[in-house]
Amino acid sequence: MAWKFQQKSDVAKLGARNAPWHVGWRDPAGRLHRKKIGLKAMASKFMAKVEADKVAGICGDNRHTWTQFRDKFEAEILASKPAGTQGIARDAFQWFEKLCKPRRMAGITTETIDSFRSKLCRQPGKKQGSNMAPATVNKHLRQIKAALRKEHRWGYLPQVPDFEMMREPDKLVSYVTPEDFAAIYEAAEVSTMPKGLPYEPADWWRALLMFCYMTGWRISEPLALVRDDLDLLAGTAITSHHDDKGNRDDIVKLHPVAIEHLERIASFHPEVFPWYHDRRTLDDEYHRIQRAAGIKLHCREKHEHTPACHVYGFHDLRRAFATMNAKRLTADELQRLMRHKSYLTTRRYINMASRLDQAVDQLYVPAVKQA
Fold it and tell me: Of 10-14, 111-115, 293-297, where does mean pLDDT reach its minimum?
């Protein structure tokens, strides 16, 4: 016997005269559900409950588990996302499973999320003796929130819990100053990696440093740049959506100084900046060059300091590009060159560069008798 109903719940007897009664209904996502009840009175009572739950916004199938949801979410949503986005989401899922041990989706409430946030704050941070940074906590919370919103739209979660984010401290952002950049550039002479290339490691490092300082690219982008996407005669490079955080292709005009350094490392390697060593060694070599340059930054964080606390990271080169050019370029030009999706992100760099200098210069100065 075919089940015949459209939107409302229905009660029917399927089969012979003494066959049990069934209740059929559609959840908010339009999926058909059917449950064998037995007696007609019990079936009618269950049907009334289903209708009441639908009016109240409660899904008809509250047996959907977290494991079922995660498998479905990873297969239908994450599979189409960039590899970096997939890693961030899976990392958040692992923390959520470890700290909250979710079972049924209907059991995930605001209290669950508050407990998750509280437990995340007590987890060890990257630095010894520190706790997980508020920015990292918020990153995990955003991933879980996005996933639960999708689950709600699928019709398996009655309502999306409230998410209260951590307040992130407004810290001074570090960037490579022109003086420190010049020292690091000269100290590249001590580099011994990468090996096996038709030019000196110092030329490779100076080309990479100058390229990052003159383009503001994230370090993953020049390392992924291939020679087929580089035109030294036209002075352009193509960023691929596979390697760009903005998930789009773009043609970028290069400064003549960057082109001059790229010409020094011309080779038959398919990559412009070949690095056939472990990724961790790239940071180690960069730190070693900085120590040779006499770089020793002051770390304001309250944790047990390590040598990495006192040197620049690669992202500080990107911040330097933004800071040094914020007053030279228009906001639209800076946003385009840094390939920010949101203008608000670019605005933070502009504010960091200005530091309200003009406003301070115009402050009223009281007239007092000088000692």
Answer: 10-14
